[in-house]
Amino acid sequence: MEIKKLNIIITLGLVAIIGILIAQLLWTKQAYNLEDKKFNQKVNIALMEVVDKMSEGKTSFTENPVQIVANDYYVVNINNEFHPTVLEHYLKTEFTRFQINTDYVYALYNCHSDQMIYGKYISSHQEEPSEKVIKFPKHKNLTYYFSIRFPDKTTYLISSLRFWYVLTFALIIILLVYVYSIYTIIQQKKFSELQRDFINNMTHEFKTPLSSILLATESLNKQEIVQQNSKLQTYTSIIIDQSHKLNNHIEKILN
Predict the structure, then answer these.
(1) Domain that holds residue 240
(2) How confident is the prediction for the chain on average, in pLDDT?
(3) SS3 call for 22
(4) Stated pTM of the model
(5) Distance between CA 70 and CA 41 in Å, rounded?
Protein backbone atom coordinates (compact mmCIF):
# COMPACT_ATOMS: atom_id res chain seq x y z
CA MET A 1 0.00 0.00 0.00
CA GLU A 2 2.86 2.39 0.88
CA ILE A 3 4.57 1.68 -2.44
CA LYS A 4 1.33 2.36 -4.31
CA LYS A 5 0.90 5.71 -2.51
CA LEU A 6 4.53 6.59 -3.19
CA ASN A 7 4.12 5.83 -6.90
CA ILE A 8 1.00 8.02 -7.05
CA ILE A 9 2.79 10.92 -5.33
CA ILE A 10 5.83 10.55 -7.62
CA THR A 11 3.66 10.47 -10.75
CA LEU A 12 1.59 13.49 -9.71
CA GLY A 13 4.71 15.48 -8.83
CA LEU A 14 6.40 14.59 -12.11
CA VAL A 15 3.30 15.49 -14.15
CA ALA A 16 2.99 18.81 -12.29
CA ILE A 17 6.61 19.81 -12.89
CA ILE A 18 6.52 18.76 -16.57
CA GLY A 19 3.26 20.70 -16.99
CA ILE A 20 4.81 23.82 -15.46
CA LEU A 21 7.90 23.42 -17.67
CA ILE A 22 5.80 23.06 -20.84
CA ALA A 23 3.73 26.10 -19.86
CA GLN A 24 6.94 28.05 -19.21
CA LEU A 25 8.35 27.10 -22.62
CA LEU A 26 5.11 28.19 -24.30
CA TRP A 27 5.15 31.48 -22.41
CA THR A 28 8.79 32.03 -23.36
CA LYS A 29 8.02 31.37 -27.01
CA GLN A 30 5.07 33.74 -26.88
CA ALA A 31 7.20 36.38 -25.16
CA TYR A 32 9.85 35.99 -27.89
CA ASN A 33 7.22 36.41 -30.62
CA LEU A 34 5.83 39.51 -28.90
CA GLU A 35 9.33 40.94 -28.52
CA ASP A 36 10.00 40.23 -32.21
CA LYS A 37 6.76 41.97 -33.19
CA LYS A 38 7.61 44.91 -30.95
CA PHE A 39 11.08 45.14 -32.50
CA ASN A 40 9.65 45.13 -36.04
CA GLN A 41 7.17 47.85 -35.10
CA LYS A 42 9.89 50.05 -33.60
CA VAL A 43 12.14 49.56 -36.63
CA ASN A 44 9.26 50.28 -39.00
CA ILE A 45 8.34 53.52 -37.19
CA ALA A 46 12.00 54.58 -36.94
CA LEU A 47 12.58 54.00 -40.67
CA MET A 48 9.36 55.86 -41.49
CA GLU A 49 10.73 58.81 -39.51
CA VAL A 50 14.00 58.56 -41.44
CA VAL A 51 12.12 58.64 -44.75
CA ASP A 52 10.01 61.60 -43.62
CA LYS A 53 13.03 63.63 -42.51
CA MET A 54 15.09 62.81 -45.60
CA SER A 55 12.26 63.76 -47.94
CA GLU A 56 11.40 66.74 -45.70
CA GLY A 57 7.74 65.79 -46.01
CA LYS A 58 7.68 66.56 -49.73
CA THR A 59 7.31 62.99 -50.93
CA SER A 60 4.02 61.13 -50.47
CA PHE A 61 3.64 57.37 -50.69
CA THR A 62 0.57 55.39 -51.66
CA GLU A 63 1.85 52.51 -49.54
CA ASN A 64 4.28 51.93 -46.71
CA PRO A 65 7.81 52.71 -47.98
CA VAL A 66 9.25 50.23 -45.46
CA GLN A 67 9.13 46.62 -46.62
CA ILE A 68 10.07 43.68 -44.39
CA VAL A 69 11.74 41.31 -46.85
CA ALA A 70 13.03 38.87 -44.23
CA ASN A 71 13.05 38.58 -40.47
CA ASP A 72 16.18 40.72 -40.20
CA TYR A 73 16.11 42.49 -43.57
CA TYR A 74 14.27 45.70 -44.51
CA VAL A 75 14.06 47.66 -47.75
CA VAL A 76 13.16 51.36 -47.57
CA ASN A 77 11.95 53.33 -50.57
CA ILE A 78 13.01 56.99 -50.50
CA ASN A 79 11.78 57.89 -54.01
CA ASN A 80 14.28 60.73 -54.06
CA GLU A 81 18.03 61.23 -54.22
CA PHE A 82 19.80 61.20 -50.87
CA HIS A 83 23.32 61.39 -49.48
CA PRO A 84 24.79 58.43 -47.51
CA THR A 85 26.06 60.71 -44.72
CA VAL A 86 22.61 62.19 -44.19
CA LEU A 87 21.07 58.72 -44.18
CA GLU A 88 23.52 57.45 -41.56
CA HIS A 89 22.89 60.48 -39.36
CA TYR A 90 19.13 59.97 -39.38
CA LEU A 91 19.46 56.22 -38.86
CA LYS A 92 21.58 56.74 -35.75
CA THR A 93 19.29 59.48 -34.47
CA GLU A 94 16.03 57.56 -34.89
CA PHE A 95 17.39 54.21 -33.71
CA THR A 96 18.71 55.88 -30.56
CA ARG A 97 15.37 57.61 -30.07
CA PHE A 98 13.42 54.35 -30.34
CA GLN A 99 16.01 52.42 -28.27
CA ILE A 100 16.99 50.00 -31.04
CA ASN A 101 20.30 49.05 -29.47
CA THR A 102 21.66 46.39 -31.78
CA ASP A 103 24.15 46.27 -34.65
CA TYR A 104 22.97 46.91 -38.19
CA VAL A 105 24.34 47.20 -41.70
CA TYR A 106 22.92 49.39 -44.42
CA ALA A 107 23.54 49.51 -48.17
CA LEU A 108 22.45 51.94 -50.87
CA TYR A 109 21.23 51.32 -54.36
CA ASN A 110 23.22 53.13 -57.03
CA CYS A 111 20.91 53.69 -59.98
CA HIS A 112 23.85 54.70 -62.20
CA SER A 113 25.74 51.43 -61.73
CA ASP A 114 22.50 49.47 -61.19
CA GLN A 115 23.83 47.67 -58.14
CA MET A 116 23.80 47.74 -54.37
CA ILE A 117 26.81 49.45 -52.89
CA TYR A 118 27.94 48.66 -49.38
CA GLY A 119 27.18 51.33 -46.87
CA LYS A 120 28.46 50.81 -43.36
CA TYR A 121 28.39 48.47 -40.37
CA ILE A 122 27.09 50.34 -37.33
CA SER A 123 27.87 48.78 -33.95
CA SER A 124 25.78 49.64 -30.91
CA HIS A 125 28.81 48.99 -28.67
CA GLN A 126 31.40 50.72 -30.85
CA GLU A 127 32.96 47.39 -31.73
CA GLU A 128 34.97 46.59 -34.83
CA PRO A 129 32.84 45.79 -37.89
CA SER A 130 32.21 42.13 -38.59
CA GLU A 131 34.30 40.67 -41.40
CA LYS A 132 31.38 38.51 -42.49
CA VAL A 133 30.11 39.47 -45.95
CA ILE A 134 26.45 40.51 -45.84
CA LYS A 135 24.65 40.35 -49.16
CA PHE A 136 22.08 42.91 -50.28
CA PRO A 137 20.08 41.84 -53.35
CA LYS A 138 18.57 44.38 -55.77
CA HIS A 139 14.85 45.06 -55.83
CA LYS A 140 12.85 45.77 -58.93
CA ASN A 141 10.41 48.67 -59.30
CA LEU A 142 12.45 50.78 -56.87
CA THR A 143 14.84 53.54 -57.92
CA TYR A 144 15.99 55.38 -54.81
CA TYR A 145 16.12 53.12 -51.83
CA PHE A 146 18.35 51.61 -49.20
CA SER A 147 18.43 48.25 -47.44
CA ILE A 148 19.21 47.50 -43.83
CA ARG A 149 20.02 44.27 -42.02
CA PHE A 150 20.22 43.39 -38.33
CA PRO A 151 22.73 40.49 -38.22
CA ASP A 152 22.44 40.05 -34.43
CA LYS A 153 18.67 40.42 -34.15
CA THR A 154 18.06 36.96 -32.67
CA THR A 155 20.80 37.42 -30.06
CA TYR A 156 19.41 40.85 -29.23
CA LEU A 157 15.88 39.50 -28.71
CA ILE A 158 17.13 36.60 -26.58
CA SER A 159 19.15 38.97 -24.38
CA SER A 160 16.03 41.08 -23.82
CA LEU A 161 14.26 37.92 -22.58
CA ARG A 162 17.06 36.90 -20.25
CA PHE A 163 14.72 36.56 -17.25
CA TRP A 164 12.44 34.12 -19.11
CA TYR A 165 15.33 31.93 -20.19
CA VAL A 166 16.88 31.93 -16.70
CA LEU A 167 13.52 30.92 -15.23
CA THR A 168 13.12 28.14 -17.81
CA PHE A 169 16.65 26.90 -17.09
CA ALA A 170 15.90 26.92 -13.35
CA LEU A 171 12.76 24.84 -13.94
CA ILE A 172 14.76 22.34 -15.99
CA ILE A 173 17.29 22.07 -13.13
CA ILE A 174 14.43 21.53 -10.66
CA LEU A 175 13.00 18.80 -12.89
CA LEU A 176 16.38 17.05 -13.11
CA VAL A 177 16.86 17.27 -9.33
CA TYR A 178 13.35 15.88 -8.82
CA VAL A 179 13.99 12.97 -11.18
CA TYR A 180 17.31 12.22 -9.47
CA SER A 181 15.63 12.39 -6.04
CA ILE A 182 12.90 10.01 -7.18
CA TYR A 183 15.51 7.63 -8.57
CA THR A 184 17.37 7.72 -5.24
CA ILE A 185 14.16 7.10 -3.26
CA ILE A 186 13.25 4.13 -5.46
CA GLN A 187 16.73 2.65 -5.10
CA GLN A 188 16.59 3.07 -1.31
CA LYS A 189 13.12 1.53 -1.28
CA LYS A 190 14.37 -1.50 -3.19
CA PHE A 191 17.35 -1.85 -0.86
CA SER A 192 15.05 -1.58 2.17
CA GLU A 193 12.79 -4.33 0.79
CA LEU A 194 15.77 -6.58 0.10
CA GLN A 195 17.05 -5.95 3.62
CA ARG A 196 13.65 -6.73 5.12
CA ASP A 197 13.32 -9.94 3.10
CA PHE A 198 16.78 -11.00 4.23
CA ILE A 199 15.93 -10.39 7.90
CA ASN A 200 12.62 -12.23 7.56
CA ASN A 201 14.34 -15.22 5.99
CA MET A 202 16.98 -15.28 8.69
CA THR A 203 14.44 -15.04 11.52
CA HIS A 204 12.41 -17.86 9.97
CA GLU A 205 15.58 -19.93 9.83
CA PHE A 206 16.10 -19.27 13.54
CA LYS A 207 12.47 -19.87 14.45
CA THR A 208 12.30 -23.42 13.07
CA PRO A 209 15.16 -24.93 15.13
CA LEU A 210 14.11 -22.83 18.13
CA SER A 211 10.62 -24.33 18.00
CA SER A 212 12.16 -27.79 17.78
CA ILE A 213 14.35 -27.08 20.82
CA LEU A 214 11.34 -25.77 22.75
CA LEU A 215 9.20 -28.82 21.92
CA ALA A 216 12.03 -31.20 22.75
CA THR A 217 12.74 -29.45 26.05
CA GLU A 218 9.07 -29.39 27.08
CA SER A 219 8.82 -33.09 26.22
CA LEU A 220 12.02 -33.80 28.16
CA ASN A 221 10.72 -31.85 31.14
CA LYS A 222 7.77 -34.24 31.39
CA GLN A 223 10.03 -37.26 31.68
CA GLU A 224 10.08 -38.99 35.06
CA ILE A 225 13.88 -38.92 35.35
CA VAL A 226 13.87 -35.13 34.97
CA GLN A 227 11.03 -34.60 37.41
CA GLN A 228 12.92 -36.59 40.02
CA ASN A 229 16.06 -34.49 39.55
CA SER A 230 15.76 -30.85 40.67
CA LYS A 231 18.88 -29.74 38.80
CA LEU A 232 17.61 -31.15 35.51
CA GLN A 233 14.27 -29.44 36.09
CA THR A 234 16.06 -26.16 36.66
CA TYR A 235 18.08 -26.54 33.44
CA THR A 236 15.06 -27.48 31.34
CA SER A 237 13.07 -24.59 32.84
CA ILE A 238 15.87 -22.17 31.92
CA ILE A 239 15.97 -23.55 28.36
CA ILE A 240 12.18 -23.31 28.03
CA ASP A 241 12.10 -19.77 29.47
CA GLN A 242 14.89 -18.48 27.23
CA SER A 243 13.38 -20.22 24.21
CA HIS A 244 10.11 -18.38 24.82
CA LYS A 245 11.99 -15.09 25.12
CA LEU A 246 13.86 -15.70 21.87
CA ASN A 247 10.63 -16.71 20.19
CA ASN A 248 8.98 -13.45 21.33
CA HIS A 249 11.91 -11.42 19.95
CA ILE A 250 11.62 -13.22 16.61
CA GLU A 251 7.89 -12.49 16.47
CA LYS A 252 8.58 -8.79 17.09
CA ILE A 253 11.12 -8.74 14.24
CA LEU A 254 8.72 -10.48 11.87
CA ASN A 255 5.92 -8.07 12.75
Answers:
(1) 174-254
(2) 79
(3) helix
(4) 0.62
(5) 14
